[in-house]
């Protein structure tokens, strides 16, 4: 059994890809970007990728737009940090249409097939900013950059969702869609005629959706037939890559008692798939705030009750970490990040956040 | 203009047959949705709809009170219900739903999920006087609405397209639909909320939106720029003072926008959601928000 990194430093040294997960609003993008800043300051060549309909990375980097290709922010970071950056710092926000086109082109050299796919209205609808598509395309970007030698570390900020696991489920759903010979079925008229149930089901579908849609569905099948095999190969490769020692998962969570079951569930899911879960970043903690003698108003009372809730959260986490089933392989690091008393506006703020990881175990 | 109160026209937005509670992740949409549903259920038969809450069984319908139900909407079940209703003949429904291809279509095709989720919401407006929807975070929420247009085009001329058109017509009608956009007094959610409103109006030009700022820190502050030295405070008092000033500064982004301001209620270590939902409901009741 390989040694499991159980510190943030160990994780940064070992992994070539870090995937940050978490529900919306926990500061996942800020944490991902600052982690990238930290690694760049320690000499790594880092690229931070976010697929985020809300364009948060660009905002937190103080940029209006990030391109589809990585933007080199090393010089800007050096200026913001007031020191030399021994590594490199890049960021990018892929446009899903371009990721999708690159994906299709990577699957076949047959230009006619490529054009047919691009023309199909069903595929065009799929490839727009739909939730499942975004999640798959995030993985697609990861594979693309993991293979590029100019980066030592890829940090993937996963699309925001209420369910942390939807990111993990997207490729499996797609794989099943393909693996069940669905595409093959769509292109083989003989099969259509053979299976009575199938014929019946399609006639119902046609009644509901109209002939146009069903024809487009067949066209979709024929268009995808060309790339089906390579696509499945790619999905397998992605799954294998996700299981490799190169890749670690991080969870960004709020320091509230509700996070304990979320972390436990996430841990089980990650391990169940043979992936590596490295640690939890508890963001926006108020635990560091000292009481101010003599001042007691609604505001300080609120802070006190938030601190009490945090303590309850840590007690719960400790409890679940000490479960008998928590064997060595499940050793995680926990990093507590203080809530900032100002908004994150740009690289300078990200630099400040990045220094806060240093207190990490 | 006193911006921390809602005008009568905004109150009416909160009292439409269908209310979408929207906003960035983590701003308290669920809390506000629960509070609004409880408030509305005092006078109307109300349904609160969550979208695929992973912590509850799919399509679970619960009675929260004699006049308030809570549904956990889920795409596969909604697809089955819709297909069942449309096809009619039970045998045919069975053939259709048990067909492997159709099952994958329902589960794996990204756009169909959104279409049936929104379809279920639309359908339930006939069964309840008020429907309050706890929407997914900004991007995914907009995708739900956008799917109506994409698929309406793909299914041109079919019964599905007709339903999609009927949904668009209901959802575009300000007499029937209100949007409550929830934010926190932080820069990114405030900016994103206004962008969300713009996007909503692009999809539904007559969309009427009420704004709410959740978790207002219980101290007044003056907008000020902070020294760059240290991004976090050391003492509670310093944090409180900085936070109050920061909020005042951030809320300049919503200058002149009427809005509901909801206080940051202290959580309890356990059951924080219920404590705060109760507190927010009481606050809204006292404010006569509807």
Short descriptors:
heterodimer; A: 361 residues; alpha/beta; Rossmann fold; 8-stranded mixed β-sheet; 16 helices; 12% strand; globular; B: 290 residues; 49% helix
Describe it.
The complex is a heterodimer of chains A (361) and B (290). Chain A has 361 residues and is α/β, with parallel strands linked by helices. Chain A has one domain (14-162, 244-286, 298-359): Rossmann fold (3-Layer(aba) Sandwich). Chain A has helices at 8-14, 28-41, 56-60, 74-81, 96-107, 111-119, 121-127, 131-146, 166-179, 182-187, 189-194, 196-209, 211-243, 259-272, 298-321, 347-356, and strands at 17-21, 45-50, 71-72, 88-92, 153-157, 247-253, 277-285, 333-338. In chain A, strands 3-4-2-5-1-6-7-8 form an eight-stranded mixed beta sheet, sandwiched between helices. In chain A, β6 (247-253), α14 and β7 form a beta-alpha-beta unit. Chain B has a single domain (8-73, 114-286), classed as P-loop containing nucleotide triphosphate hydrolases (Rossmann fold, 3-Layer(aba) Sandwich), CATH 3.40.50.300. Helices cover 49% and strands 16% of the residues of chain B. Chain B has eleven helices and eight strands. Chain B has helices at residues 8-13, 29-40, 75-87, 90-98, 100-108, 110-124, 138-154, 159-171, 187-203, 236-251, 272-286; strands at residues 18-23, 46-51, 61-65, 68-73, 130-134, 177-183, 209-216, 260-263. In chain B, α7 packs parallel to α9. Chain B starts with 7 loop residues before the first helix and ends with a helix. Chains A and B meet through α3, α7, α8, α9 and α12 of A and α3, α4, α5, α6 and α7 of B.
């Amino acid at each position: 059994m390989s040694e499991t990194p159980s510190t943030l430093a160990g994780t940064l040294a070992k992994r070539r890809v870090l995937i940050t997960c978490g529900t919306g609003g926990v500061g996942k993008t800020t944490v991902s970007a600052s982690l990238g800043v930290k690694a760049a300051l320690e000499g790594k060549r880092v690229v931070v990728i976010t697929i985020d309909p809300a364009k948060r990375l660009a905002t937190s980097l103080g940029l209006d737009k990030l391109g589809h290709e990585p933007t080199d922010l090393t010089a800007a970071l050096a200026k913001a940090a007031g020191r030399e950056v021994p590594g490199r710092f890049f960021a990018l926000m892929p446009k899903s249409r371009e990721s999708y086109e690159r994906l299709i082109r990577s699957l076949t050299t047959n230009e006619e097939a490529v054009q047919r796919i691009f023309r199909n209205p069903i595929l065009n609808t799929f490839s727009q900013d739909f939730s499942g598509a975004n999640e798959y395309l995030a993985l697609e970007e990861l594979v693309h950059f993991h293979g590029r030698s100019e980066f030592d570390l890829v940090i993937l900020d996963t699309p925001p969702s209420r369910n942390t696991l939807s990111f993990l489920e997207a490729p499996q759903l797609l794989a099943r869609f393909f693996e069940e010979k669905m595409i093959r079925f769509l292109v083989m008229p003989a099969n259509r005629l053979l299976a009575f149930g199938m014929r019946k089901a399609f006639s119902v579908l046609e009644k509901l959706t109209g002939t146009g849609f069903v024809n487009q569905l067949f066209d979709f099948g024929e268009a995808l037939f060309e790339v089906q095999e390579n696509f499945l190969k790619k999905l397998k490769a992605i799954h294998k890559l996700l299981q490799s020692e190169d890749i670690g998962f991080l969870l960004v969570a709020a320091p509230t008692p509700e996070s304990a079951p979320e972390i436990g569930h996430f841990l089980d899911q990650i391990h169940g798939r043979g992936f590596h879960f490295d640690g939890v970043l508890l963001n926006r903690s108020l635990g560091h705030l000292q009481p101010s003698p003599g001042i007691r108003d609604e505001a300080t009372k609120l802070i006190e009750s938030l601190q009490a809730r945090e303590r309850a959260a840590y007690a719960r986490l400790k409890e679940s970490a000490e479960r008998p089933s928590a064997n060595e392989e499940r050793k995680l690091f926990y990093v507590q990040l203080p809530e900032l008393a100002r908004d994150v506006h740009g690289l300078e703020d990200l630099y400040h956040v990045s220094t806060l990881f240093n207190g990490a175990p | 203009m006193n911006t921390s109160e809602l005008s009568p026209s905004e109150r009416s937005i909160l009292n439409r047959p269908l209310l979408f509670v929207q906003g960035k992740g983590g701003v308290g949409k669920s809390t506000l949705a629960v509070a609004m549903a409880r408030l509305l259920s005092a006078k109307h038969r109300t349904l609160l709809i969550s979208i695929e809450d992973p912590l509850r069984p799919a399509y679970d319908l619960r009675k929260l009170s004699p006049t308030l139900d809570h549904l956990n909407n889920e795409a596969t079940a909604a697809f089955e219900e819709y297909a069942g209703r449309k096809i009619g003949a039970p045998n045919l429904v069975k053939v259709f739903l048990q067909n492997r291809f159709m099952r994958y279509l329902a589960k794996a095709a990204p756009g169909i999920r959104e279409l049936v989720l929104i379809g279920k919401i639309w359908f339930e407006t006939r069964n309840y006087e008020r429907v309050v929807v706890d929407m997914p975070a900004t991007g995914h929420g907009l995708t739900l609405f956008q799917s109506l247009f994409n698929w309406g085009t793909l299914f041109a001329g079919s019964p599905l397209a007709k339903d999609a058109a009927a949904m668009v017509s209901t959802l575009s009608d300000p007499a029937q639909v209100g949007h409550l956009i929830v934010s926190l007094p932080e820069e990114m959610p405030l900016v994103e909320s206004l962008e969300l409103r713009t996007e909503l109006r692009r999809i539904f030009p007559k969309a009427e939106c009420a704004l709410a700022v959740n978790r207002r820190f219980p101290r007044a502050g003056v907008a000020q720029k902070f020294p760059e030295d240290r991004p976090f405070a050391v003492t509670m008092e310093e944090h409180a003072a900085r936070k109050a000033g920061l909020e005042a500064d951030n809320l300049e982004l919503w200058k002149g926008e009427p809005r509901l301001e909801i206080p940051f209620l202290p959580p309890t270590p356990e059951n924080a959601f219920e404590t705060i939902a109760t507190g927010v409901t009481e606050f809204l009741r006292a404010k006569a928000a509807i």
